[in-house]
Amino acid sequence: MTDPHPGAGASRRRHPLPEPGHVAPGQTLQWLAAGWRMFTARPGVWMIQTVILIVILSALGFVPFLGWAVAPLAFPVLVAGMLAGAQAVDRGQPLRVDHLFDGLRHHAGNLLMIGAFHLFGALLAALIAAAVGGSAALTGMLVGAFAGMGLAAGGMMLAVVVFTVLWVLLVMALWFAPALVMLQDVSPLDAMKLSAQACLSNVLTFVILGVILYVLTWVAMLPAGLGMLVLVPVLAGALYAAWQDTFAERPALPLPAPPASAPAPGPAPDTDHES
């Protein structure tokens, strides 16, 4: 019997999962250079996509009561769409504005689940940090005087450190997750695990990348935020290049040519002679 949905079986095949590879710190500059080349290939389309992205996320943020939750849910879907556009450019295909919505057309449920993990992780990190800071402040109030003030201040600093560590771990889990779901059909939870594994096993590389992006973000925000129209597409291309180097399968090396075979021996000469 013919399967009415021929792609359904393939979409359920999650294994074997891609293995994260080793990436050197110097590759961060190569990723950003790749993102810049992708941007300069179609700058107008990329800028239009970025404007639409910012407008959508801003509009979702103003949704009454739920805006704070809806925007994080939608963010991985839109990121996946930009990655689909980067893949099209990388393959020499035309970049379209509606590439931004490929995440809605493909893997929307899994990408929204990544957004849900994003939201839950951020809330959990905030709650844990608040609990640490709040308990320290309460203890300081009970102790009183200068010792209590020092304890409370130390507790607040500890809460900031705890939140920062948890937030960095969350970002590591989210970094490659949209690419793994969108481009390699990995399930959401596996994608976040693999993303965290890749970032932790190449921690120096991604720390350097994070510092560079932090600086570039401040530079992009200086001209009234207009630099983000360039930085966002460059970042999408850099993320695509980083995914390629870290997870994408590389073509196998050609098999070595077999050694030249010796010529087949001819028929043995006839040694029987009539006497």
Automatic annotation (TrEMBL):
It comes from the Bacteria. Pfam families: DUF7847. The chain crosses the membrane at residues 45-63, 69-89, 110-132, 152-177, 198-216, 222-243. Residues 1-22, 254-275 are annotated as: Disordered. Residues 254-268 have a biased composition (Pro residues). Keywords: Membrane, Transmembrane, Transmembrane helix. Residues 58-252 form the DUF7847 domain. This is DUF7847 domain-containing protein.
